[in-house]
């Protein structure tokens, strides 16, 4: 099985979660969503262990000390991190691991696991549209919203670090693009057990 890590980054509000939800509806059996730890407070609809592990600052610092994280970063005043153990376990079981992480975290993960990572940057067609979506989502205070928009401009400067770019304008088209990337990478020869495939082919099983 061709297991790899699919990193999804992009400004908050661009539509990453919406697109990932669709991907999971179609490919659930093959995917593993890495639930991050964060020191941010849960939003109204968010559940511990499903959207994030919501932990205290002290717990987060303790996890850093214990090398619990594959990567971690401070984003919009809060800490976020990806479990190394969970990621490795999912990769070993042949899953495609989905990481919804920021640019700083992506750079760290890429240094550690370069040949396992495929990366996609998802954004809106312009800043105005991002603002509209954040307002519509209605999960941030005005100060948080401004912080997220400011951060988005910085993140846009890092586009060149990514393998693929999706401008999430029309949702169905963006989903087709995301799906195409996943399907193509699953078919790559690198990462597949070619000896086994050849053996099976020769035996005619
Ligand atoms: P992210 O996970 O990147 O922070 P979300 O998936 O929460 O973003 O999307 C932010 C808001 O934008 C949500 O209200 C979502 O319904 C909406 N949205 C997502 N994709 C589109 C799209 N292509 N066109 C219009 N609205 C969208
Ligand atoms: P939100 O607070 O909107 O859920 O997420 C804010 C930002 O943190 C998003 O850009 C998201 O991709 C990023 N993020 C979520 N989990 C992680 C993680 O484990 N590591 C890093 N580096 N960023 C994360």
TrEMBL record:
Main localization of the protein described in the UniProt heading: cytoplasm
UniProt EC number: 2.7.4.8
Chemical reaction(s) catalysed: GMP + ATP = GDP + ADP
Cellular compartments annotated: Cytoplasm
SUPFAM superfamilies: P-loop containing nucleoside triphosphate hydrolases
CDD domains per record: GMPK
Physiological role: Essential for recycling GMP and indirectly, cGMP.
Name of the protein described by the UniProt record: Guanylate kinase
Organism field: Campylobacter estrildidarum
């Amino acid at each position: 099985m061709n297991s790899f890590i699919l990193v999804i980054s992009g400004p908050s509000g661009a539509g990453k979660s919406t697109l990932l939800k669709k991907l999971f509806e179609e490919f659930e059996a093959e995917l593993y969503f890495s639930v991050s730890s964060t020191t941010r407070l849960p939003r109204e609809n968010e559940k511990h262990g499903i959207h994030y592990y919501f932990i205290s600052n002290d717990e987060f610092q303790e996890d850093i000390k214990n090398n619990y994280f594959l990567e971690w970063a401070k984003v919009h005043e809060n800490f976020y991190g990806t479990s190394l153990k969970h990621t490795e376990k999912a990769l070993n079981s042949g899953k495609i691991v989905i990481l919804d992480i920021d640019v700083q975290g992506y750079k760290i993960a890429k240094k550690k696991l370069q040949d396992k990572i495929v990366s996609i940057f998802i954004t809106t067609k312009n800043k105005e549209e991002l603002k509209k979506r954040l307002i519509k989502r209605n999960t941030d205070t005005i100060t948080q919203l401004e912080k997220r928009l400011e951060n988005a401009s910085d993140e846009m400067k890092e586009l060149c670090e990514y393998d693929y770019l999706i401008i999430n304008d029309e949702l169905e088209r963006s989903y087709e693009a995301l799906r195409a990337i996943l399907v193509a990478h699953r078919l790559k020869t690198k990462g597949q057990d070619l000896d086994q495939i050849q053996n099976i082919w020769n035996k005619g099983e």
